[in-house]
Amino acid sequence: MALLDKVPGELKLYIGGIFTLRRRDALREANITHVLSVLRMPLDDDLFSPYNHHVVQVDDVDDENLLEHFPATNRFIQDGLDGGGGVLVHCAMGKSRSATCVIAYLMQKHHISVSEALSQVQQARPIVEPNEGFMKQLELYGQMQTPESVEDTPAYQRWVYQREIELSRAVGQAPEAEKIRFEDEHVTDQAASFELRCRKCRRPLATSQYLIAHDSSKSTNDQGPISSIAETARDCAHYFLDPLSWMRPELEQGKLDGRLECPKCHANVGKYAWQGMQCSCNEWIVPGISLSKSRIDQVKKAAVSEIRRPPGPAVSSPVNPRQNL
What we know:
26% of the residues lie in helices and 20% in strands.
C-alpha cells in the first residue's frame, strides 16, 4: 500500500491532492484526524465526515490573497498535531495552494526561511511549486516575522494598499479615498537621514523614510548601481514618495493625476499620477507621487533641530520592509 506524502521530521504532517482523500486505508494508518482543504470547488461532505475539517476557499492564481489565511491555517494544523493525530493539507493537485500553507506553518513553527521550508516540503512531494504570487506572499510573511495576526501588521496593510492601487490602475480609476494609505499616519521607528522642505516658504514636506528607492538594477550612476535613497534622490529630477497626510485634500478628490501644492504657501511643489510616472532616470514608479527637485531643498538631519513630520497621528509600527535606508 502506498504511503502518504509526509513532511520530513517528527511532525505527523502530510500533503497531497484531492484524490488523497480516497485512500482511506493510508489515511487510517497515518491516524489522520484533521484535514485542511485549500481550494475552491464543490466538495463531497462524505469525504470529510470522519475528520476535523477546515476549508480555505482560494484559487491557484497569483493575485489570490492566501497570506491573510496563514494565522488560521497555522492554528488548525497545530491544533491537530497537539491532539496527537495526523494532519493532511491538500488542494486539487497538492502542488501550490496546499504547499503554501504547509510552508507558512513550517516557517512559523521552526523559524526558518521560505527556501528552507520549501526544500523540506519538496522532499515529501517533489512536484510542489507554489505560484509566483504565493511565493511573494511567503517572502513577505517571513519579513513580517510570521506574526500571529497579519492584519494588524503595517507591512501587510501596505501590501493590501499596493494591491488596491494595482486594481485601480487596471480599471483606469483613482483608488477610493478610504483606501488610500497615508504613510505618516503609520509612523515608523526608522530615523530620518534628511528632510525635504518647500524652497519658497521652507515648510517641511517629507523626511527620508517616506521616499521610495528606485530599482538598483535599472537605475545607475557613474559609479555603478544606485543602492540608496540618497543616491536616487541626487541623480533624479524628482523625489518619489508615499502619500502623506498633507496631500489628503488633493489625493482624495478621485482624480487620476494632478498637481501637489505646498500646504503653507500653495507653491507648486510636485505632481501625482495613480497610473504611474516615469522618472528622468527612466524608472517607472507606480503610483507616481513626486516632489520636484527644483522646488525642494534637501536638509541633512544634522542641520535640523527637530525632525518635523506633516500633520497626522503618531502611531508606532515596525520598520517598512521594502525600504533600505
